Write a sequence for this structure.
């Protein structure tokens, strides 16, 4: 995904705040461990995506597009990255699933190539499940 131009950031902040207010808190069950061989990313993922997360992702993608941000068109694949450069690693056959309580939305800036992230703003999701 290309970098977001600095003048677009205020509009993205407002859009994310609006989406969060209308959003819904949810729980994500991370019950699959895998490694994407094409990128060498070891990660945990849900075997089932909660409808509230699908709605949140779609709303954020729509708002980003309205702000002129080019959004990733690949199929949405929620995950938690555990390690990079893990191409030759084998994920565990069994592990205790993790429950992730998603209660807010954050706009995060990444410093490309460094693995560093900065939270620009965070908003609570509007309603509990």
């Amino acid at each position: 995904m290309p970098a977001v131009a600095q003048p677009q950031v205020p509009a993205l902040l407002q859009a994310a705040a609006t989406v969060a207010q209308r959003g819904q808190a949810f729980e994500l069950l991370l019950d699959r461990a895998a490694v994407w061989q094409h990128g060498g990313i070891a990660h945990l993922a849900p075997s089932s995506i909660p409808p509230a997360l699908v709605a949140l992702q779609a709303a954020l993608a729509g708002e980003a597009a309205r702000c002129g941000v080019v959004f990733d068109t690949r199929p949405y694949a929620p995950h938690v990255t555990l390690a990079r450069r893990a191409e030759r690693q084998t994920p565990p056959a069994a592990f205790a699933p993790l429950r992730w309580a998603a209660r807010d939305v954050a706009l995060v800036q990444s410093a490309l190539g460094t693995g560093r992230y900065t939270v620009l703003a965070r908003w609570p999701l509007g309603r509990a499940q």
